[in-house]
Design goal:
Length: about 300
């Protein structure tokens, strides 16, 4: 092999040598990699100039970009670019697009909205978004609720009534369910009799003798259950007392047990411990009147409506 060809195959060195034979190779980076690195540096400098970047003193470098939008009050707002301002711009743009529909909702009766195909489509779209943001944390995404905590909105069984007017009232004013603690005023055998009677009203297997005694107690001044639930035990919507004859359960987890004794035990626990947690917040002031109207129709449709 010629000396010239051998030299061309030899790896270049920097010319530094240690101990006579230790040499430092010279392996430069590929040209494309070097230029890519320079491009990323230039990109970073441009980005830092346009958008918020480095902390600086008690603030940060804000960049030269800004965002301008018109808020819900019709005021023009300008902010240096940031993700919150970008979100506000998009929300207000969506609000402007929806305003004609919300204005139409405000001018129409519930019956007119229900008969208007275009508005029905808007109600389903806007109502679902409002429900997801404000109602779903308690009533679940599909409105099915959770036994022991929040009512099912899809079964057309309404504690306070399922008309447009009653649903609107519930949203505007909120609700607070309450049942006294009978464990402090009734004996254990009396509570057991009441539990068997309530179970019998929904066709749950029970002790007939105890149910008979519970019937008497239910309609007596001792327990006075009929004051709230009615003499026929079908409840009172004016105070939100539930119907005890329809086998629909909110507070007692009757469906959670397969055995009759487990179902009766769930009823017995509610009677003994009472209830003071059926609280729904007031939405007036938190949502606009148009949003509450949209939610009223949406919830009404979820349950089939009355």
């Amino acid at each position: 092999m010629s000396e010239q060809k051998l030299q061309s195959q030899t790896v270049q060195t920097t010319g530094h040598a240690w101990d006579g034979d230790l040499q430092e190779y010279n392996n430069p980076l590929p040209v494309w990699w070097v230029y890519t690195f320079y491009a990323t540096v230039i990109f970073a400098i441009v980005y830092w100039t346009i958008y918020p970047s480095w902390p600086f003193g008690k603030g940060w470098l804000g960049g030269v970009a800004d965002i301008t939008y018109v808020n819900s009050d019709g005021e023009t707002k300008t902010h240096s670019w940031n993700t919150r301002a970008l979100l506000m711009e998009k929300l207000n743009a969506a609000s402007v697009e929806q305003k004609p529909y919300f204005d139409k909702v405000a001018s129409m009766s519930y019956e007119q909205i229900a008969k208007d195909p275009e508005m029905s489509g808007f109600i389903q779209s806007a109502g679902k978004a409002l429900f997801s943001d404000n109602c779903a944390p308690c009533h679940q995404a599909g409105g099915q609720g959770k036994i022991g905590f929040f009512p099912n909105l899809t079964d057309d069984d309404w504690l306070y009534g399922g008309t447009y007017a009653k649903i609107h009232e519930t949203l505007m004013e909120g609700r607070r369910g309450y049942m006294p603690t009978f464990g402090e005023v009734l004996a254990a055998d009396q509570i057991d009799s009441l539990a068997n009677y309530v179970a019998s009203l929904s066709g749950i297997p029970h002790d007939a003798g105890k149910a008979s005694a519970g019937n008497v107690l239910f309609h007596s001044e001792t327990a006075a259950c009929f004051y709230c639930h009615g003499g026929d035990a079908k409840g009172r919507k004016d105070i939100g007392a539930p119907n005890l004859t329809d086998n629909i359960w909110l507070w007692a987890d009757v469906p959670g047990s397969d055995a009759a004794e487990g179902k009766i035990a769930a009823i017995r626990n509610v009677i003994a411990q009472g209830l003071n947690k059926g609280v729904m917040p007031v939405w007036a002031g938190r949502l606009s009147s148009e949003q509450i109207k949209v939610l009223t129709v949406y919830v009404h449709d979820l349950g089939g409506g009355q």
